[in-house]
Structure formats: structure tokens, C-alpha cells
Design brief:
Layout: E1 2-7, H1 20-23, H2 27-41, H3 44-56, E2 61-64, H4 74-87, E3 93-95, H5 107-115, E4 132-136, E5 139-143, E6 157-158, H6 161-176, E7 180-184, E8 200-201, H7 203-213, E9 217-220, E10 227-233, E11 236-242, E12 263-270, E13 277-284, E14 293-301
Parallel strand pairs: 1-2, 2-3, 5-7, 6-8, 7-9, 9-11
Antiparallel strand pairs: 1-12, 4-5, 10-11, 12-13, 13-14
Length: 302
Amino acid sequence: MFRLAHISDIHLGPLPKVTRRELASKRITGYINWQRKRGSSMNDGILDGLLASLKSQTPDHIAITGDLVNLALKEEIELIRGWLETVGPADEVSIVPGNHDTYVPGALKDIIAAWRPYLVGDHDDGDHPFPYLRERGDIAMIGVNSGRASMPFMATGSFRSKQAKQTRKLLEDAETDGKFRVVFIHHPPFVKATHWHKRLIGSDLFRKTLAECGAELILHGHTHIESLEYIDGPEGKIPVVGVPSASHAPPPLDDGSHKQGARYNLFDISGKPGNWTCRMQEFGYKNGADTVTQIADRVLIG
């Protein structure tokens, strides 16, 4: 059995000091949002408690599907490099970028340089590592980059033809090798997943690629809520699983908010081609709670 853990949308705080020059860009809108809302709901203590619970489950691998930082400031990027070392060694932790990690032009290049061991495949792929492939036993993990710099007030992602072609090759080769294929992406790839200004541009191309090549499981972040949807594969439906932000404090019981407290998901994978099994367990902070508990347990495949 292989145990895969999934967290997302770390939004590690607090924000470092921001200069006026740094705010003379799209960052001004994110800075205002942090000061007005996000800074009070994102809690490093919550993140620490969630990670302690996750590590007690002894996963074989941890997937982090983007938005590790807030404004893609150089100090934030360096802070995350140190934080990643506390999560686990690079061969046991895989990340893909989110829209906040690629918030402004040049940020993608900066995070690749700083976080490289965590977001390249088993064979380092030069300056453009996406999509990447990491194989661990019978598991093939494919990391796709949907993060890109976008206009102010936009949080869109992108999946275009070049990445689609490369992803197709990785999926087909992994199937030939008899692997259980898991795809990591930040933006959810199903229809009506989020608001127009937060959508994945090219989601139809992503779905077409998966409909033709298949995969066993797709993991994403971005929405800050738990979700289980399905997209078409060549031999049936493919589960698409989203997870709430790993640092979001649980709302009070009577809050009425649609937001959810921090969670992580565990996937226990076993079997062989044509007879895979995948059990999914959710753990996190229920509304009004201050400790991590099990929230759900279901069989996704098998």
C-alpha cells in the first residue's frame, strides 16, 4: 500500500515588510486583501497543528497543490524554502505552483530557482520542469503547472497545448508501465468549479487530454473548500479532489460561512492495473473546533 497525503493553499504568514516599489503592481490588491481579510483567517498555529497530525499518519509522500505564498515577494519565497525542509525531504514532498506563487511576472522563475528540488521530476528537466513525473513504486505522480501572472483582480490559471502534449506523453507512458497515475494541479479542472475570474483557462483542453489518456486520480487546491467531482476518462469517471486551505482557521459554529477549517486528505492506494483500490480519509478542523479530527472516510476506487 502507498499512502499519499494532500494539502494545499498554505498562504504562509505573516507578510514580510512590503516596499512601495513592490506594491506598485498587482501586489497592491493582494496586500489590501491580506490586511482586510486573509491575514486574520490564515493562522500559522493552525497549519502547525494540521502538519503534526498529518505526519503522525506516516504518509509515503506529500503533495502540495500550490499557493504556498501570498504576494510572491522574494522574502516569502525564501521563507517557504526553509518551511519545506520542515515538511519533509524533497524526494517525499511534491509541489506545483498556484496563482499566488506566480503572482507577478518573473515570480515563476524565482520559485523554480528557490524550490527546485520539490517541483522537478525524477529526471531534472531544465528551466521548464512542468509537467514533471515522479515515480514511487506503482505510483506515477504528474505535476502540472496552472499558475501564471494575471491581471489585477484576476486569479486565473492556464493549461495550454504544449503542456497538454507533454502531459499526454507522461500519462500514456505511465499507463504502459502499469502505474496508478495521480495528477497534481492548482486550479480545479471541472466545469463551473469557481468564479469566472478564478477559472482555469484551458480546462476544456485538460479534460480532453484526460478523457483520451486517462488517470486514476486528480488533486487540486485553489477554492479553499473540500470537493469531490468527476471528469470523463477513457474507461470511466476520474475522481477530482479538492482540499481546503491548510492554514485556514475554522469558523465559529454559528458563523454561517461557506469557508472551512484547514484539512488534509489521505489516499491509501493498492492493487494493480484493472484492480486498483483507493481509500480517501479527510482530517481537519471542524467548525468551532481547536483540534484535528477525522471528518470523512470513503472508498474512491475499488
